[in-house]
Amino acid sequence: MTKFNKFINFVVNKIIFIIIALSTVAFFYPTGFAWMTKYTAIFLGVAMFGMGTTIDYKSMKSIVIHPKEIVIGIVSQFVFMPLIAWGLCSVLNLPSDIALGVILVGCCPGGTASNVMTHIAGGDVALSVTMTTVSTLLAPFLTPVLVYMFAGAWINVSLYAMFITVIKVILIPVVLGIVVNKLAGKKMEYVSPVLPLISSISIILIISGIIAINSDKIIESGALVTMVVFIHNVLGLFTGLGVSKLLGVEYKKATAVAIEVGMQNSGLAVSLATVNFAMNPLATLPGAIFSVMHNLTGSVFANVRRNGAQKAYNLKNRVEI
Predict the structure, then answer these.
(1) Is this prediction's pTM over 0.85?
(2) Which letter, b or e, does each residue of 220-230 get, where b requires 16 or more Cβ atoms within 10 Å of its Cβ?
(3) Distance (Å, whole) CA 208 – CA 78
(4) Judging by beta carbons within 10 Å of its beta carbon (0-12, 13-18, 19+), is residue 25 exposed, middle or buried?
(5) Cα 242 to the center of its chain, rounded Å
(6) Angle at 239 between CA 295 and CA 15, to 5 degrees
């Protein structure tokens, strides 16, 4: 079991290098990885189930009673991210299609992958899931208004479709995990060490599939779009982290807020661009590239935060001893 634990720690701690290696292979050999995107919901669902087993009633109740972090996350999501997107488009004077795509990404809610990254980072998963759910439910009302304000257009968003997605990918697997955790009790101690491995493998497969199906678009997009998407993503992560620290949010919750703010639902952005802006085909590119970028930067950020939490834990134990 010791060797297996070492293997788990290796995969979790070195996930970014594994992602880069497989993403490179997927980019040059897309046919071998494109099939993975058909099972994205399943991969996320499995990871969500694992996360659900780490959530108990007390943690969820605490979040409802003390909603400070949820408010910080939601405000940062729907205020700072659209502003950052609009600012980048204005300063860099981006072409209208690309600017529209960047603003679409900035106005979307948090993505479900943020929950997986928070799990890997050792952050507050219950808070992350709650923020994703709340922001997604608010998106049908806020996203169209924000896009209209910043991009000068109106988008028809289906509340029903988004709500169904949240239920399938987040709520049902998480609730099942919570129920299993409650019923299994102390027996969960035998399987809990494997859960980060499951989450890591899920992220690796998802990113590889995204890289594969978007390889042509990534080539066509050029360095400019990649640079803008990278800046927007990184600024989002550090905005969430900075606001959290400024308002005294503790480490694990700050990690969850930062990842939630920085990792948008880029899949929704691509869908909205495709359906509502057919005359602006390049508007899908920022969302497609962001799907890759935010997972890569999110993986790096998650590992940094995970290592930071571990160092703090070790230091605390030494002081107590």
Answers:
(1) no
(2) ebeeebbebbb
(3) 29
(4) middle
(5) 18
(6) 25
Please give the pLDDT value at position 87. 93
Q: What is the pLDDT of residues 132-159, one digit of tens each?
A: 878 877 887 788 888 888 886 545 545 5
Rounded Cα distance, 7 and 21, in Å = 18
Distance, in Å, from the CA atom of 128 to the CA atom of 63, rounded to the nearest integer, reads 11
Burial of 237 (0-12, 13-18, 19+ CB in 10 A): buried
- To 5 degrees, how large is the angle CA 79–CA 82–CA 84? 100
Report how far residue 285's alpha carbon sits from residue 287's, in angstroms, rounded to the nearest whole number.
5
pLDDT digits (tens, 9 = 90+) for 251-305: 999 999 999 999 988 777 877 777 677 677 777 788 878 877 888 888 889 888 8
From CA 84, how far away is CA 239, in angstroms rounded? 10
The pair of structure tokens assigned to 73 is: 């996350």
151-206 tens-digit pLDDT? 865 455 455 765 777 677 767 887 888 888 888 877 777 777 777 777 778 777 87
Q: Which of 200, 11, 304 is nearest to 3 (CA)?
A: 11
How far is 204 from 274, CA to CA, in rounded Å?
26
Q: Tokens for 79? A: 């205020």
